[in-house]
Amino acid sequence: MNVLVINAGSSSLKYQLFNMETETILAKGLCERIGIDGHLKHKPSLAGKKVFDEAVSLPTHAEAISAVIDKLTSADYGVIECLSEIKAVGHRAVHGGRRFFGSALINDEVVAILEDCIRLAPLHIPANLMGIRACQIAMPGVPQVAVFDTAFHHTIPEHAYIYPIPYKYYEENDIRRYGFHGSSHRYVSAIAIQHLDKTNDTKVITCHLGNGSSLAAVKNGKSIDTTMGVTPLEGVPMGTRCGSVDPSMVDIIADIENISIKETMDILNKKSGVLGIYGESSDFRDIEIAAGYDMNTGFDDKSATPNKRAKLALEVFNYQVAKFIGSYIVALGGLDALVFTAGIGENSPYVRRAICDLLKGIGIKIDEHTNAVRAGDFLDITAEGSIAKVFVIPTDEELVIARDTMEIIHK
Question: Domains in the chain: how many in total?
Answer without folding.
Answer: 2
